[in-house]
Amino acid sequence: MELLSDNALLEAYFKALQLNLETDFIVLLRDEIKRRNLFPIQNQYN
């Protein structure tokens, strides 16, 4: 997951939510976002 840029990670997360993909995949992305201290993501993508 470290090869993915922060922007690509956030884009993947929001696209996964939009497409209603598997919960496990969304959780995986969200955990990586938290690990990188990119939360609160709501403030970055309103």
- Helix content class: 55-70%
Structural class: mainly alpha
C-alpha geometry: globular
- State the order of secondary-structure elements, H for helix, E for strand: HHH
Q: What would you say the CATH architecture is?
A: Orthogonal Bundle
| Helical run tally | 3
Question: How many distinct domains?
Answer: 1
Note down, in words, how this protein is organized.
With 46 residues, the protein is mostly helical. It has helices at 6-18, 23-35, 41-44. The protein has a single domain (6-44), classed as Helix Hairpins, CATH 1.10.287. The longest helix has 13 residues, at 6-18. It is globular, with a radius of gyration of 10 Å.
Features:
single chain, 46 residues, mainly alpha, Helix Hairpins
What secondary-structure arrangement, pairings included, does this model have?
Blueprint: H1 6-18, H2 23-35, H3 41-44
Helix pairs in contact: 1-2
Short summary of the structure?
With 46 residues, the chain is mainly α.
